């Protein structure tokens, strides 16, 4: 009777072991073997075997669950009352040393057809040539899930099918989750290959023969005998490899800094003729500096230059882009229902035109604000290594001022900044001239009412309201600064600073005296904080 080897994982106690069961047996036979071999000898009635997220029934046959070439691993859950002896002890948690997986890149190619059987097929070329993002000795407090573990497992299974290898898969690839791999592939804009979801056909004798060979330090499969046709399992393996190799090529390569060591500096020997000349001139002979450690090894981290920055993974969110347009259409339909465009065609045309303008504005906003990550500033070199910080070009930096603030309005494209700035600065220039003492007369009631109505309607827009409030706060801050300078007492000294302060105060008092009474009352309200918008 042939036996199969099953690996049993007991996560509750961090314990794993292997058992041997008849190949034609059932799950109930495996439970009996577990009761006889597992530490604590749990009863079969209290055992539950879980495989790929589902509990196995006692009457299920092993040959119906696993293929002959698959790795057989189950998880064991034991009821606390089913232990007949002391259960396995939980070992101390070890620190994981899994390397950090780099962020996916987008420089990839579409999957191509695999090479003919007469060519050399690379083995693990995309796995061995990529090192970890951190040295293996760096401790990591939490394990990192590899999103391509399922793809790597399928590639290993395909390679074993080509070589007709029956050894089990590595433990880190057993029962690898498929969802992260599907999400990674779809995030690249590709469609998930159907070949990775289908099962491998049963292994058959014969077929094409491959052998392992090493070329330039890399492990490859070399075609040895192709006199016989490929088996169905080998054909399926070639289809799987045609997808897995291209998917693993799309995984990014994070280059670690190259550590170099500076050779020890040796003091050059002084020629005899120079020593004799220095002695004649009464100068002390050149000696090496004894305070410097000559054989010190100075490690310097040299970053690899000209590496392309990792681009963000593209996000395909058609629903979020269509949702605002859908709400615009619903609002237009609601307005058309109330205004009856059949009886008022002019109003209907205006509503349709307004809707088209809103949709166009939404399109311009999305096109003008792409999701581009902010560039990080160049860090300065450490002070100890004597290197200077790289020169940062400031020619293109925008000066801080009203123009810079207007161009940085949140949520608005650059084309919408000019209308916002126009409505936000209504009558501000005229008010500035009045504050300078150039007021010709107090505005009339009609002008005040017209200005109030226009500001009331325009400041409904949040961007216009925020911009005008910021400008008014700047003006009030300047007025309070001038008021503080006018109220500053004289310290009674004859210093230059005191004279300049006195002249400045006199100038401010003269200009304030030239202002009309209604402008002075506004300045007094600002100084007394009688009209401040703290919302």
TrEMBL record:
Domain Ubiquitin-like: 4-64
Compartments (UniProt record): Membrane
Keywords for this protein: Membrane, Transmembrane, Transmembrane helix
The keyword Transmembrane helix appears for this protein: yes
Compositional bias ranges of the Polar residues kind: 95-115
Pfam assignment, any one: ubiquitin
Segment forming the signal sequence: none
Gene3D superfamilies from the UniProt entry: Phosphatidylinositol 3-kinase Catalytic Subunit, Chain A, domain 1 (3.10.20.90)
Region (Disordered): 84-119, 482-515
Biased composition, class Basic and acidic residues, residue ranges: 500-510
InterPro entries (UniProt xref): HERPUD1/2 (IPR039751), Ubiquitin-like_dom (IPR000626), Ubiquitin-like_domsf (IPR029071)
Gene Ontology biological-process entries: endoplasmic reticulum unfolded protein response
The organism's place on the tree of life at top rank: Eukaryota
Protein name: Ubiquitin-like domain-containing protein
Organism name: Cylindrobasidium torrendii FP15055 ss-10
